[in-house]
Design a protein that fits this description.
The complex is a heterodimer.
Chain A (H helix, E strand, L loop, with lengths): L6 E6 L9 H16 L4 E6 L6 H6 L3 E8 L7 E5 L16 H12 L4 E8 L11 H19 L3 H11 L1
Parallel strand pairs in A: 1-2, 1-3, 3-5
Antiparallel strand pairs in A: 4-5
Chain B lengths: L2 E6 L8 E7 L5 E8 L5 H5 L7 H4 L8 H15 L10 H33 L10 H7 L1 H22 L8 E2 L2 E2 L5 H9 L6 H21 L1 H6 L6 E6 L11 E5 L5 E6 L8 E4 L8 E4 L3 H4 L2 E2 L2 H7 L6 H12 L11 H21 L18 E8 L2 E9 L5 E7 L1 H4 L1 H16 L7 H12 L5 H5 L7 E7 L4 E7 L1
Parallel strand pairs in B: 6-11
Antiparallel strand pairs in B: 1-2, 1-15, 2-3, 4-5, 6-7, 7-8, 9-10, 12-13, 13-14, 15-16
Classes of the chains: A alpha/beta, B alpha+beta.
């Protein structure tokens, strides 16, 4: 990794739907951490959902970490997994697309394939409120504590590979 | 034996929905219904909240078209704070809102064309579903895919600059806006490196329209006859009859072009429009009161707008509008798939409007808010990308919202979407025993033409796979197909 390499942390979800805002809340924590620690190699982005234009956004990064809320039963607090572009498929909800879809589209259009991971943070409540559930907040803290070394290290790709294996 | 086919839910359509197609014993289609299966009653959630929060609160409704809700709510609150009904804002206030709105239109229409509808045209309705998407376009026509991606991105950046941020934008406030465009922001959009500048977007919008027209003239029979049926059409229009997506009066025409709602004040919408509840769907069925449930239903959206207006106030889109109108000899266009044609003319218009607004110095002005005498009730009506969107609020003495009524675009299109499904089902499923993927997609093509956002209509959250169930007259399952 060189000094010019950028790592993009991209959170998505609707903060107006309680725990669906976990991705945005994670990005807020990352933004604060970047300022506190004067980090230049990390950039962030955030939106309601991923969409096709994000293929352009991720094409400018060496590595991407997507952050999303999850309803998955088999996730206890959070999970970290590598995004496989070959998993891209047409999904039901086509006003939004998945991380693998974004990476695959980036590969097909721009000929580059940033290494990508997905942090899924377990959520529980999805109503029309800003406030996240207490359990979701705890999961957010756990996920961020787990992820902090990644933000600080000079060798983030090596570290995140290690974290993925560990997780 | 009669059969019932259920498609649940619909792919490439946002939210939860399913389609049920009922056959009689001879295999004829008896009835088709698009069911909406989830409802969360958003109007309840805003009751008791301070009115000035509404433009931000309503963005909880939907992450697909939050700008439309943001602006419709702000327009209703303009009335409440005494800033008038769309014409009372400062010039900078109105122009900034328009720029935000046209940015939303541009990116939304681009997404629909490149991501949702173009794959059907490039690969065929019965094409391989594995490549019938924008990734398939990227493989076969990468330049077209890049256009789709960058047109979306340009529109999103306009929204970010005018609304303040991508999520929960705060640009529109009761009586105006909270920021104008800086010179740097304006110059970036006007003179930015290719392709992210206004001139390129106008040129790409023309190319997208040319792409569709080539397909149309090569496949005229299919496009003209797919889900063709007469209907009424409703939208707002500018007082002089021009296309105006942000502000105007309510106009409806019948299938022959006769005005059946003659440029009425949007504040009076409730005197003219009523909503019917049907037991099998949570989505209501709006209709024009004067014509009743059977004859008063209407379409909204691009097709309807180009049927109600007299002209388009930008030159390139107007030239295309004239060619488009000539196809139906100046009469209303009732061809369902011409919705795509109309949508691309509007995309070109939005690009022209963005360029025009960026070249207007008032977009950088500092007179942002209008104040006036507060009243208790206001209606905001806007043309969202998918069609006419109504927001109606009443407040109490404590400035809290005590009543909210929203009629979203997809709800306005409920009846025509059902009729489109029925039309297609009769054509392709009559007498069939097996549900094939092309059959499923053909039904979805009919729905998708309206670009429905069921997330808006039902306030649903989440995803479901596609399922089709074939039932006999006793509603016993004969066949079931499921896909993602």
């Amino acid at each position: 990794m060189t000094d010019s390499d950028k790592i993009l942390i991209y959170g998505y979800g609707n903060p107006g739907r309680q725990d669906d805002g976990l991705g945005a809340a994670f990005i807020q924590k990352v933004d604060d951490f970047i300022i506190q620690n004067t980090l230049h190699h990390i950039v962030t982005d955030c939106n309601y959902q991923l969409n096709i234009e994000d293929a352009d956004t991720v094409s400018k990064a060496t590595a991407v970490v997507f952050v999303d809320a999850s309803q998955e039963e088999n996730i206890e607090h959070f999970s970290l997994s590598e995004v496989d572009a070959s998993d891209a498929r047409v999904e039901f909800s086509m006003h939004a697309v998945s991380p693998s879809f974004v990476i695959d589209l980036c590969r097909k259009i721009y000929g580059v394939t940033p290494i990508a991971w997905l942090i899924h943070i377990k959520g529980y409540e999805w109503d029309f409120k800003e406030e996240m559930s207490e359990k979701a907040k705890e999961n957010l803290e756990m996920a961020f504590d787990f992820f902090k070394p990644f933000l600080l290290t000079k060798q983030p790709l090596t570290l995140i590979n290690a974290l993925t294996t560990e997780n | 034996m009669s059969k019932k086919i259920t498609i649940e839910p619909v792919t490439r359509v946002e939210g939860h929905g399913k389609v049920t197609i009922l056959m009689d014993e001879q295999g004829n289609i008896q009835q088709s219904r698009l069911h909406i299966v989830e409802f969360r009653g958003f109007e309840r959630f805003v009751q008791g909240r301070p009115y000035w929060e509404a433009p931000v609160l309503v963005q909880r409704l939907c992450g697909i078209c939050p700008v439309s809700h943001h602006l419709a709510a702000a327009k209703a609150l303009d009335v409440i704070v005494g800033a008038g009904t769309g014409e009372g804002l400062t010039r900078t206030g109105e122009k900034m809102r328009r720029l935000m709105h046209y940015g939303q239109f541009f990116q939304s229409h681009a997404l629909h064309f490149f991501h949702l509808s173009a794959p059907d045209f490039l690969f065929g309705v019965d094409g391989d579903p594995a490549i019938r998407n924008i990734i398939g376009i990227a493989l076969t026509n990468p330049a077209l895919a890049v256009q789709g991606v960058m047109m979306r991105k340009f529109g999103q950046e306009i929204i970010r600059a005018t609304a303040g941020k991508k999520i929960h934008g705060t640009g529109a406030i009761p009586g105006g806006i909270n920021k104008s465009l800086s010179i740097e922001e304006r110059d970036e959009f006007l003179k930015g490196a290719d392709p992210l500048n206004a001139d390129k977007m106008v040129s790409w919008a023309e190319e997208a329209l040319d792409f569709f027209k080539k397909y149309y003239f090569a496949n005229k029979d299919f496009i003209d006859n797919f889900a063709f049926f007469p209907s009424n059409h409703l939208s707002i229009v500018r007082k002089d009859g021009a296309l105006d997506l942000y502000n105007g009066v309510l106009r409806a025409v019948d299938a022959d072009g006769k005005k059946i709602l003659n440029d009425v004040d949007c504040q009076e919408y409730a005197n003219y429009i009523e909503e019917e509840v049907r037991s099998w769907s949570y989505m209501k069925f709006p209709y024009l009161k004067e014509y009743g449930k059977e004859k008063g239903w209407y379409r909204v959206g691009p097709l309807a707008r180009l049927n109600t207006i007299d002209f388009i106030p930008t030159p390139l889109a107007q030239a295309e509008f004239e060619k488009y109108k000539a196809l139906t000899n100046g009469k209303p266009n009732n061809h369902c798939l011409h919705m795509h044609y109309a949508r691309l003319i509007e995309t070109l218009h939005a690009a022209e409007m963005i360029r025009e607004l960026l070249n207007d110095p008032e977009i950088m002005g500092d007179d942002l808010v209008t104040k006036g005498q507060k009243i208790k009730e206001g209606v905001g009506v806007i043309e969202a990308p998918r069609g006419t969107l109504f927001h109606h609020y009443r407040i109490n003495d404590n400035d809290q919202i005590e009543m909210a009524n929203l009629i979203v675009s997809t709800t306005n299109n409920n009846e025509p979407m059902n009729r489109s499904v029925n039309f297609v089902a009769k054509k392709i499923m009559t007498g069939k025993e097996i549900i094939t993927e092309p059959m499923m997609n053909a039904v979805e093509v009919a729905i998708r033409a309206y670009d429905p956002c069921l997330s808006c209509a039902t306030h649903a959250l989440g995803k479901m796979p596609l399922e089709i169930t074939l039932l006999d007259h006793n509603e016993q399952v004969i066949d079931r197909k499921r896909s993602h």
